[in-house]
Specification:
Blueprint lengths: L21 H7 L6 E3 L5 E6 L2 H13 L2 H7 L12 E4 L12 H9 L2 E2 L3 E3 L11 H8 L3 E3 L1 H4 L7 E5 L2 E2 L3 H12 L3 E10 L2
């Protein structure tokens, strides 16, 4: 019998293995075909970063349950062409404390993924900064990683990937870096957009 990857309850019928049950879809506020917007950057999110979805995202940073992540990103699958190139935003923290979600989101979406971006200077944590301070904090924070640049085709439709979209400062700087390198960046894929 099939089970919901999120609540683990038996459900039937279910069209696909990674699909969450209707109760979890409603409780987490997951949007069919994703929540879309153009401000502060063009984005597609699984839902609003609040309530139960927020709790699950924070929990995923610790337990890294790929089956739950696939269920949350299920609605984002149809929004990405098969040829999509996904670029996870690298964490500003040391590797042991880094946020694992951007790379895991790429894995859950099953598209070609390249770690093209690298942090080229230290930045501070942004959770206590205003939008203006975040923009200044992220200015020139990224560069193209020369170890991965040569293996990519800039003509492929490219999306950057992060777990949460808040002010958009990080996403804007990552987009700018990739566009300057000749990549056709379509926008950001994320789990949650802050209200």
């Amino acid at each position: 019998m099939p089970f919901c990857p999120i609540c683990k309850k038996a459900i039937q019928p279910r069209p696909q293995a990674d699909h969450p049950c209707s109760e979890c879809t409603q409780k987490l506020g997951l949007v069919e075909f994703g929540l879309r917007g153009i401000t502060p950057v063009r984005f597609n999110a699984a839902g609003w970063y609040r309530g139960e979805l927020r709790r699950h995202i924070l929990r995923l940073r610790l337990n890294q349950d790929l089956s739950v992540l696939k269920a949350i990103t299920f609605a984002l699958q149809p929004t990405l062409p098969a040829r999509a190139l996904l670029v996870p935003i690298p964490s500003w923290k040391a590797e042991k404390r880094a946020n694992p979600l951007p790379a895991l989101i790429c894995q859950s979406l099953g598209r070609t993924t390249k770690t093209l971006l690298k942090r080229c200077r230290p930045t501070v944590g942004q959770h206590h900064l205003s939008r203006r301070q975040r923009l200044v904090n992220m200015k020139s924070a990224f560069a193209i990683d020369p170890d991965h640049r040569s293996s990519c085709v800039a003509a492929r439709p490219t999306w950057i990937v992060d777990d949460i979209l808040t002010s958009g400062a990080t996403a804007q700087e990552a987009l700018k870096t990739l566009k300057h390198a000749g990549f056709e960046v379509r926008g950001l894929i994320c789990l949650g957009r802050t209200p």
